[in-house]
Amino acid sequence: xxxxxxxxxxxxxxxxxxxxxxxxxxxxxxxxxxxxxxxxxxxxxxxxxxxxxxxxxxxxxxxxxxxxxxxxxxxxxxxxxxxxxxxxxxxxxxxxxxxxxxxxxxxxxxxxxxxxxxxxxxxxxxxxxxxxxxxxxxxxxxxxxxxxxxxxxxxxxxxxxxxxxxxxxxxxxxxxxxxxxxxxxxxxxxxxxxxxxxxxxxxxxxxxxxxxxxxxxxxxxxxxxxxxxxxxxxxxxxxxxxxxxxxxxxxxxxxxxxxxxxxxxxxxxxxxxxxxxxxxxxxxxxxxxxxxxxxxxxxxxxxxxxxxxxxxxxxxxxxxxxxxxxxxxxxxxxxxxxxxxxxxxxxxxxxxxxxxxxxxxxxxxxxxxxxxxxxxxxxxxxxxxxxxxx
Length: 390
Description:
By secondary structure, this protein is mainly α. The protein has helices spanning about 1-15, 20-50, 65-75, 85-90, 105-110, 125-155, 180-185, 185-210, 215-220, 225-260, 270-300, 305-315, 320-325, 335, 340-350, 360-385; strands at about 55-60, 80, 100, 120.
């Protein structure tokens, strides 16, 4: 054990001296990547969602020409103010979100049951202006339908005759309001990607790098069985893989908990204890990614070749994400037994607060560890070959 520990510490120290490896393992993968991916997605949810309970202020030109319409707006959380003379310039300069102009002949057109003219001014380049404009359109459409029905009733015609079907939609998912299925899958994706980046450069340096430096043959000549030597290298890689995953978990927690989105607790169960629980359940996935990294490194003849192979391997964590997002995948024991896919389903359920059975959790963890052992044994068989140093 002392020899294995010595090799592990030696590999870790060597990797800590490599600033590029340290950057990708502890900063890029677990911190920068989540900020680049999850941050814009959450901001997009914030910008594109409409809160009808929030009071929105709009500037109105000619409010006295449509008092009933103005009253309807106020009843729907729209605060009406008089528009300044230079409202067009202010909207263009983002000093005013939007303005609504009521035409001079609005009352005349309204009385004749003709389409009354309203002009909505907004800034399409400003997200706040666009969001307020969408909210106002919805409210105006409600008023339009209401007046249309009242006009038909005044003429002795029941407007409900035109409604052949009354469809009521009720989205029972916890994420339905925000359409956040994709975001809920980000936790396992971030963990997998961060773990891969965490051990990426250490795995490359452990075997192909030593082969290029001509230090592999002297290392293999030491009185240490190759199995123990490979186990020591794998443990060093695993240490960086798990630590990178831990930092990624903390980053995910901070991003979600600090996101300026109301009712975000209805999308994610983002309590710190839940994130740590998800990380613990992802540890077998870290073991699996370590075995894959070691195996690919052994088959690579140079660091450049290893970077190419491992670079292609980075696509692997993305495949289950797209499959689960665009396909109607149902949770089953068979899927839970599949490495990476099962972990995506397991960790995604924790992020959204869904309940999985103990059997499904055990199947996911056990199968991932078994696949890890198989991959590592293959790597060990290759590592024992004499032509490894050729």
